Amino acid sequence: MTREVTHEADGPAILDASDTGDDGKIFVCRCGLSDSKPLCDGSHKAAEDEADGVVYKYEGDDPEGERREIDEIAYVDE
Ligand code: FES
To answer: Which keywords does this Swiss-Prot/TrEMBL entry list (predicted)?
Structure first.
């Protein structure tokens, strides 16, 4: 239940009242697959059946893209 996701943002997102749902709550994405980061858009449903101890990569970081198992998460030194 781990996945590699590429993030391009280089700073914080500022949330305000417009980010709250009808119930007044703010749902923050923790799966990394949302197109509305940092907010959850329901994309995490694609990851619900991921197995423990397996690392996944979704093609294009798209929850509807091809999902494959990878050996490990690639780290890039800068
Ligand atoms: S937790 Fe990532 S889309 Fe919901």
So the answer is: 2Fe-2S, Iron, Iron-sulfur, Metal-binding
